[in-house]
């Protein structure tokens, strides 16, 4: 039974430590997998790889200034399963121990380092520079826990408090300092405002006096310049009045000259208008008389030319049509003659072949037509008056006998024309 083989399985949040025979003198580590184990000659231990949260309390620890304070920190730690060396450390330190015991070991280690850092720093440094405190605890604790196979993921300072009111005194002192600075600042601001106000008033009065002086100086200069200007204005006014008459005479002469120029321009414009009127009438005559006459002449010429062309084209078309009709009729006659000649040739060939039988057959086909033609005029007759001598048949039988006599004379006529005795041939047939 000791040689029975078993299978050990672990999840992704734990590691198997297999030791004993067939391991080469050192344990084998398996993360999130399975392994074949012989229970009697091999040992299997499980190491948790979960992240563990530690709340590190350090109550009443004296700082470098001798002030007791209490600090609460939070750390995240775990056994590093990605490193076989750290797994080896963890298996050596925590092999076979429950998770609670591992947590307690880590917590005590973190608290010892936290207390040591607190003893080397002042209250002000811990309270105001929490980042530096957290960094120091993290670095120191990481070294020791690494030797246990545990990695510190993070550490933060959660709370700082004291039981002697030191932090409150720091706040009150800082508050008083701020209030003092505020009062001093307000007093200095009022002082500066008063000084600035006095300086501003002094500058205002100085500016007012300077301004008044400048105004008086400006008035004096104005009066002097005004007297000088009045003299110059009066002199210029007298000169202007004396020059006015001369200038008026020059202007009148200029006006007369301009009036003469205007009359000359008006006369030239009238002449130009008359010339334009003559040209307009010539153009009007040209557009209303000459152009229509030429257009009418051109139209009549074109009409005569078109009529002549029409007569010529009609005559040519008629001649061409007559020629085409003549050609068509000649071609029809030629075709008909060829057809009749071909028919007569075929009949001649037939007569040569069948000879008298063909003639008899033809005569038999023609006799009904001859009878119809002989009786045709009688069928169109409205009234027949017959005169009889008393011998022979009388009435309608007479007419019928005459038709039959005509038909009876046909064989004799055919015999005379063709030499064929139809009566004899029919009897032989």
Class from helix and strand fractions: alpha+beta
Low-pLDDT runs: none
* Overall 3D form: flat
Query: What is the helix fraction of residues, given as a range?
Result: 55-70%
For the record, give the distance between the C-alpha atoms at the N and C termini, rounded to a whole number: 142 Å
Secondary-structure element series: EEEEEEEHHHHEHHHHH
Strand content: 5-15%
Mean pLDDT, rounded to whole units? 77
Please tally the helical runs, counting DSSP H or I stretches of 4 or more residues: 9
Tell me the strand order in the biggest sheet: 3-2-5
Q: Work out the radius of gyration.
A: 78 Å
Work out the number of β strands: 8
Taking the sheet with the most strands, its summary is: 3 strands, antiparallel
Task: Using brief descriptors, characterize the structure shown.
69% helix, 9 helices, 429 residues, 3-stranded antiparallel β-sheet
Describe the structure.
β6 (52-62) and β7 (68-79) form a beta hairpin. The strands form three sheets. Strands 3-2-5 form a three-stranded antiparallel β-sheet, with helices on one face. Strands 6-7-8 form a three-stranded antiparallel β-sheet. Strands 1-4 form a two-stranded antiparallel ribbon. Helices cover 69% and strands 14% of the residues. 11% of the residues are buried. With 429 residues, it is an alpha+beta fold.
